[in-house]
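ok, trying the design again with the full structure, not the truncated one.
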């Protein structure tokens, strides 16, 4: 099973240095997979639950490395196993925006943002921000501004909440302030 997964990964990423020839971590992988055969796929919902956070973490690593295809594949695994959380859906939407440049894909990304918004009792500022970005790409400025205004309101509440907490929350407060300024700029740009 591992050899087959490594071969699939090498094929997807076009990174054959570890799998071809006599050297590398998995030499002659194609021949070895042919000899051993393709294993029967098994699915364990319990295992998928256990590794869901690791998959999300790896999806973030792939995203931050600019490997949006791998990010999408990883997040799709959590979605397929029904272990996806808000961050998974937002990563999927953002990766789609970076990979595709069509209204159909923007609408699909918007559907993933809608799923992200449903993960919590109230949508997070991150969900609202992503929703606004997709709506802007679709040319739906009025709806985007409404999402940004709600995002600003949520950020304001977050700022109040963290301001009242004991301890050093200066980094968090700076982040919230920066996000709030970004939202204000985007509202202004969308209105122009």
């Amino acid at each position: 099973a591992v050899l087959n997964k490594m071969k699939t990964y090498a094929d997807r990423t076009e990174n054959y240095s570890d799998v071809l020839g006599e050297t590398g971590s998995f030499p002659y992988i194609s021949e070895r997979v042919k000899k051993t055969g393709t294993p029967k796929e098994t699915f364990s919902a319990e295992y998928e639950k256990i590794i869901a956070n690791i998959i999300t973490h790896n999806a973030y690593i792939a995203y931050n490395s600019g490997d949006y295809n791998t990010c999408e594949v990883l997040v799709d695994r959590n979605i397929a196993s029904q272990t996806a959380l808000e961050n998974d859906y937002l990563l999927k939407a953002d990766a789609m925006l970076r990979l595709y440049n069509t209204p159909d894909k923007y609408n699909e990304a918007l559907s993933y943002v809608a799923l992200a918004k449903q993960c919590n009792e109230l949508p997070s500022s991150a969900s609202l921000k992503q929703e606004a970005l997709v709506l802007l790409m679709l040319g739906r400025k009025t709806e985007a501004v409404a999402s940004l205004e709600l995002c600003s309101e949520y950020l304001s509440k977050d700022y109040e909440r963290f301001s009242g907490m004991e301890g050093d929350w200066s980094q968090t407060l700076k982040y919230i302030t920066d996000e709030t300024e970004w939202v204000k700029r985007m509202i202004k740009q969308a209105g122009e």
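Keeping the full-length input from now on. The longest helix spans residues 141-163.
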